[in-house]
């Protein structure tokens, strides 16, 4: 279950990162650290593994499916990244390591438009799309930010400051860089369009001895950031912090119970057997929906909240039957999921016994068509929930 506890203007702490003023390494105009005025929301997760009843196929609709027409000799396979849908275009990062990593653009009918002309190495590259349709790709191994025009041509390259771990971009084109080491007294900085430091947002606390998720998500005009081992998320509109969302895990949060496992090398091995929550692994928000997930071995539970009514879906599988929608991108009031060839092959290689047929019959018609090979992969699904047919607990 999840409950909303409060919504008011206060300051907060992120794990070991309290917000306060420090002397920064930079011009006098940006010599303080702080987030300014913002509101907070706190959700309480009483039972992290609580799961609501999966939705039957008559409780949601698949509004649109488009098969992506890939360029010749390129395949999308394995752990496919979530798409970004913006200005009637679908953007995905290819994962065909044999051909290098690129960002591909499609229209909403799945027609291929263009791909970035430069390839990248590694799986940690992240990208964002600005309001002019340009693609900004962060290559963490260099580290640099590459900007591509609306035809995929490289237009500029900027060296990322202080070797950041992760990268985000606000709706008005500002860069946010997050750091896994104390580069300049800050764990999160924001830069203007000329890559000049505007403000240091969170001071660096202690160095973590174990890697963890540190994520940025772009949904419409919002950019959300979940720092390392954090129980809180920063939600920006443009380059202004709109709010901080904190999740109260009721004493099951690793940084409350055993922070030395995260910051002390001798204690770090305890993480491998820990059953505690490592922090928020993802967060997305639109005007209609909120979705966040958290790291809890061996699952990654999620909460999907309808903001107008506070109705909440909980668990890791929200749909009955074969439903390849365990991960999705929030687009207004829709869920957007991408399905690759490997998923279909895995389903069809299973023993098609009575249990398999039961799952098949519970699946939406479009999913059945996917399994039957009538919808080619990779395919992007646009899903809406029929809230009037769903009875859910409220947060």
Helix content: under 10%
Distance between the termini: 7 Å
Task: Provide the spatial order of strands within the biggest beta sheet.
Answer: 1-4-21-20-19-18
Class computed from helices, strands and strand pairing: mainly beta
Question: Main sheet?
Answer: 6 strands, mixed
Q: What's the average pLDDT? A: 85
Q: Strand fraction band?
A: 35-45%
Which geometry do the CA atoms define? globular
Count the E strands: 28
The gyration radius over C-alpha positions equals 21 Å
Which consecutive residue ranges, at least 5 long each, have pLDDT under 50?
1-32
Q: Please, how many helices?
A: 5
Name its key features:
single chain; 395 residues; mainly beta; 6-stranded mixed beta sheet; 4-stranded antiparallel beta sheet; 8% helix; disordered N terminus
What topology emerges from the helices and strands here?
Layout: E1 2-8, E2 13-14, E3 17-18, E4 39-45, E5 60-67, E6 84-86, E7 89-93, E8 103-107, E9 112-115, E10 126-129, E11 135-139, E12 144-148, E13 154-159, E14 166-169, E15 175-178, E16 186-191, E17 197-203, E18 215-219, E19 222-226, E20 232-237, E21 240-248, H1 254-257, H2 260-263, E22 280-285, E23 289-294, E24 302-306, E25 312-315, E26 329-331, E27 334-339, H3 341-349, H4 354-362, H5 365-371, E28 379-385
Parallel strand pairs: 4-21
Antiparallel strand pairs: 1-4, 2-3, 5-28, 6-7, 7-8, 8-9, 10-11, 11-12, 12-13, 14-15, 15-16, 16-17, 18-19, 19-20, 20-21, 22-23, 23-24, 24-25, 26-27, 27-28
